[in-house]
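User: what does the whole thing look like in 3D?
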Amino acid sequence: MTAEHSNLAAAQGGATVIPVAVIVNGVTRGATVPARRLLSDFLRHDLRLTGTHVGCEHGVCGACTVLLDGEPVRSCLMFAVQAAGREVTTVEGCGTLAELGPVQQAFADCHGLQCGFCTPGFVTTITAYLRENPTPTEAEAREAISGNLCRCTGYQNIVKSVLRAADLIGEQS
Amino acid sequence: MKPAPFAYHAPRTLAEAIEVLGALGHDGKILAGGQSLIPMLSMRLAAPAHLIDINAVAGLNEIAVTPEAVRVGATVRHRALERSPQAYAVLPLLRQALVNVAHPAIRNRGTTVGSIAHADAAGEMPAVAALTGAVMEVAGPGGPREISAADFFTGPLETTLAPEEILTAVRFSRFPEGTLTGFLESARRSGDYAMAGVGVAVTVKQGSIVAARASFVSVTDIPDVLDLTPVLADVSAQDLPTRWDDLRGAVREHVSPESDIHASADYRRMLAGELTCRVVTQVMTR
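Assistant: Here's the predicted 3D structure for the full assembly of 459 residues, as structure tokens:
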């Protein structure tokens, strides 16, 4: 523990409060938070980036998946303080309303979402996956989304969306 | 739910980490990948007063291949070990097992050494530690010590690691030349906890099996090793089916699964035997 952290901890009756700065979607954003603040809650409550959704809060559903230095991780399974100085990409960093990103466009094209609760986790997961495997087969696309739960679609249109996004990205490059 | 408040420590050196944990003992908990610990904190199954985050500790993030072993440091992610060509070249069992650990998003964060310290009998890597006869490298206020896998696991989620000790690395022993390995499990959903799983190491000379061992996931209280040599000795790939009944029998006798909503004990026992037959076939006909 740094001296600074020790002092803050003493002031909070043992629970550490820490200034945390994270590079979110290319912009450095900061807040002073308790050490127990999950990265998911830091994004939603402290930074007001509510695109990241919180489902099960124990790593099973995948709705809160964000990219940490480009790799998908569950934002409910790390503390904000652990992301200090790292690059985090949320669904807000995967495109804008005016200009959807390729994965978002593919979901719109293929009816890959219904209620949309799980979609942010799918978009981030698929964005990272297609960087690694730009031309997946249908079976690979299905496996790629196996860590994300959707209770509406039955997954068929999400698999189609993965393949469509791969095509869109292929056309761009 | 959210984790209970805690004091956060982020030591930069192992000496500092040992000092902090040594002073806290039972009140402190090591945080590495956190993929098992943080859910337990969020569900308030655990509420340590202090967390000691070792992710910034220098020197723990290394994979090293030696003539005897693959040495994995405490903060090496599952994903890094899975992708290491050097580790795969000398001990393919590591990757064969790691691809079964949850999903990539979990493996990007979770650590192999942390999952062994956690000692969940439903975890893949404790079984791999048992099967490879791994050596645990431990650091604590009393200095460093080593624990063999056979002496490490004592019960579900229980090990001989003392509260003030840190598991700093695991050395997965390499198998003798001619040893083939495989790993197979069955889960309700891809990446979910296995209902049953098995890793095998089969040593073959001139087409016949001379030694065979297996470790199991989710069907034993602690990860231990079943010696299958008596059942499989002198068998070639084409004669394997003549030993299926004996092999299934040996596995069913060894395992002690429990029933839950996902599968009955009988079903898990059947699965363990069947998966063992399949993975031995896979290994011998690859």
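In plain terms: Chain B touches chain A at residues 1-11, 20, 34-35, 38-39, 41-43, 49, 51, 53, 55, 79, 102-106, 108-109, 189-191 (CB under 8 Å). The first strand of chain B starts at residue 7 and ends at 9.
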